Please model this.
Amino acid sequence: MANDLNKVLLIARLTRDPDYKNINGTSLVNFGVANNRTYVANGEKKEETHYFDCEAWGKLADIIRQYATKGKQVMIEGRLKYDSWDTPDGKKASRIKVFVENLQLLGSPSGGSGGRESSGGYPDQKYDSPSYPSNSGGDSGSQFGEYESQASSDDEPF
Model:
């Protein structure tokens, strides 16, 4: 019998600056991303934009808070997480978000699409993201360091 797999890999741009919270001494950021899909249907070029809500915890949340801003292109690796709650008027509400386990900033630190930056850029370090709150039972690593620029003007979601 095969095991289930809950894995998401996205390259997208932040739609807003990360919203930071400190919950019982643990950092949390929530942010949104958007990505485009371009395709041809009936000989006509079409484009779709998809929006995703994301959350990250711990050291990874601190890094995202410090370096990620609206419009920045990122690569996200994570899993889907189902949230449900009761609204103030007593109705049930739910949504699916991306629980970010790894995030890498793409493009140059100044926002352009140039090559590597040697100073004033992103930290060349690896950070481990805690598995909190996770039901998978294992720690997952987070990669945040040197990068190769992959941005192009054709990849803009806005």
Summary: Confidence is low (pLDDT under 50) at residues 112-128, 130-158. Residues 82 and 118 are 40 Å apart (CA to CA). The first helix runs from residue 58 to 67. The chain has one helix and eight strands.
